[in-house]
Write a structure and sequence with these properties.
Residues 125-265 form the SIS domain. Keywords: DNA-binding, Transcription, Transcription regulation. InterPro entries: Homeodomain-like_sf, HTH_RpiR, RpiR-like, RpiR-like_SIS, SIS_dom, SIS_dom_sf, WH-like_DNA-bd_sf. There is one protein chain. This protein has 286 residues and is α/β, with parallel strands linked by helices. Helices cover 62% and strands 8% of the residues. Strands 2-1-3-4-5 form a five-stranded parallel β-sheet, sandwiched between helices. Helix 7 (95-116) packs across helix 14 (242-262). The longest helix is centred in the middle third of the chain and has 22 residues, at 95-116. It is globular. The protein starts with a helix and ends with a helix.
Length: 286
């Protein structure tokens, strides 16, 4: 039973405060996914603690986990393209079945990632990225690959960016951060010891910390000033950080595009970058 059906079935037996919150979620699931717990409380005329307790009564650790469940329920309503399957990849699946399941898992992970991040938090992250003197990106493993990709995009906008795949160098870079700087830390689990220690050091240095992590309660989220979330589907694809990486790329690409809109001279920087690369390619061909 989906969480929306579960809430609907329990409405009549709920206390008035819970029933008002539940009714709003059932009738406005898309709007609920864009709201923080405080915003949902305001919409329903209840307290923020009532929203959190409502989530816990349904068996979730907190409001973010409830949002994920609602997102999954909404995703089930989404119609995949013809021939596409979303499900666990089995060892005896054929080539086409694996391809279809993998595409389905990737699309759902990206869709749910966008759904669980409300516009207010995205805007906070954009403001922090836009105003930062220096931006340090941290991540290990697959998250390091996403950090590197995002660093290249930020450099195209003329941003002062620090990134290195070596966690020791990341730690050294973090030690130079100050109050005008920003750490953008990626870890789906939120428990990667290197990324966590770098975030803790950046926080001690009074830098702003943005964490991109999973919805589960985790140490990195506790350190961060601004939290953005990704939804992976690793149990279904049974592989190494595939959908978590895609979700991170979706989120960082969204931030990059929104930064281009916000930065007045962004198009000039992007054009100059493309022109410089074109010159280099021309010389290679000559």
């Amino acid at each position: 039973m989906s969480i929306l059906k579960k809430i609907s079935a329990k409405l009549e037996g709920m206390a008035p405060a819970d029933r008002q919150i539940g009714q709003f979620i059932v009738e406005n699931p898309d709007q609920m996914l864009r709201l923080s717990s405080a915003a949902l409380a305001a919409e329903t005329g209840r307290s923020q603690s009532s929203v959190v307790k409502f989530s816990q009564k349904l068996g979730y650790a907190g409001y973010q986990e409830l949002k994920l469940a609602v997102s999954e329920a909404k995703a089930q309503e989404w119609q995949a393209p013809t021939g596409m399957i979303h499900g666990t990849i089995e060892v005896d699946d054929g080539y086409l079945t694996i391809l279809q399941k993998l595409l389905g898992s990737k699309l759902q992970a990206m869709q749910q990632t966008i759904a669980v991040n409300n516009e207010l938090d995205i805007d906070k992250a954009l403001k922090a990225l836009y105003e930062a003197r220096r931006i340090h990106l941290a991540g290990v493993g697959a998250s390091s690959l996403v950090a590197r990709d995002f660093s290249y995009k930020l450099m195209k906008l003329g941003r002062n960016v620090l990134h290195d795949s070596d966690s020791h160098v990341q730690m050294a870079n973090a030690s130079t951060l100050g109050a005008d700087d920003l750490l953008f830390a990626l870890s789906y689990s939120g428990t990667s010891i290197e990324t966590l220690r770098i975030a803790e050091l950046a926080s001690q240095r009074n830098a702003t910390v943005i964490a991109v992590t999973g919805l589960q309660d985790n140490p990195l989220a506790h350190v961060a000033d601004i939290r953005l979330y990704t939804v992976g589907d690793e149990d279904r694809v049974r592989s190494s950080a595939i959908t978590a990486r895609d979700a991170q790329l979706m989120l960082t690409d969204l931030l990059f595009i929104l930064l281009i809109q916000r930065q007045p001279d962004a198009n000039d920087y992007v054009h100059n970058s493309e022109a410089a690369v074109s010159v280099l390619k021309a010389k290679q061909l000559s």
